[in-house]
Amino acid sequence: MTYILTIYEEAKGQPRPRAFVRGGRGAVYDPCTANNYKHAIVLEARRLEYADMCLDTPVCVYIDVFVKRPKSHFRANGEVKPLAPALHTQKPDADNIAKAVLDALTTAGVLRDDKCVYGLTIRKYWAGGDATHRTEITIRADEDK
After folding, report:
1. Which residues make beta-bridge pairs with 80?
2. Across the chain, what does the average pLDDT equal?
3. Most buried residue, 7, 21, 49, 95, by most Cβ within 10 Å?
4. Which residues of 54-75 are buried (b: 16+ CB within 10 A; e: fewer)?
5. Phi, psi of 139 (to 5 degrees)
6. What is the pTM of this model?
7. Is 8:132 a contact under the CB 8 Å cutoff?
């Protein structure tokens, strides 16, 4: 069984927990920088009625992230410059995006726990032309394993 989600939100990586000291006591908090991205994933999963299916069988997750190109990648006539990079190798880091996506899928109820993911592929590309940000998530459940 295969499930496909497309999210039209700028991809954000799951931030590292931050620590601070206040009044002589230490505390740790999770920055909220990826909350909008994760919330968009949860909403799309619920819209497509993928929520509450709680897959606990082995699954493979494929994440393709498309990032809008900056203006510096284009010529005046709108064509992409020949020296503009084809692959996205800047922030956010691929592993942090994967953490945010898997956390959101678990929160949405699509996955019972992300430990059931036995295969994970994430790729980052520059979006073609003037296309906007998007993330395409494909979940392949292997129910016979």
Report:
1. 74
2. 86
3. 7
4. ebeeebebbbebbbebeeeeee
5. -115, 120
6. 0.83
7. yes
Q: What is the mean pLDDT of residues 23-48?
A: 84
- Per residue in 107-137, pLDDT (tens digit) is 988 998 889 999 999 999 988 766 789 999 9
DSSP-derived secondary structure for the chain: -EEEEEE-S---PPPPPEEEEETTEEEEE---TTHHHHHHHHHHHHHTT-TT--B-S-EEEEEEEEEPPPGGGB-TTSPBPTTS-SB--SSSPHHHHHHHHHHHHHHHTSBS-GGGEEEEEEEEEEPSTT---EEEEEEEE-TT-
pLDDT at 129: 67
Q: Which amino acid makes up residue 140?
A: R
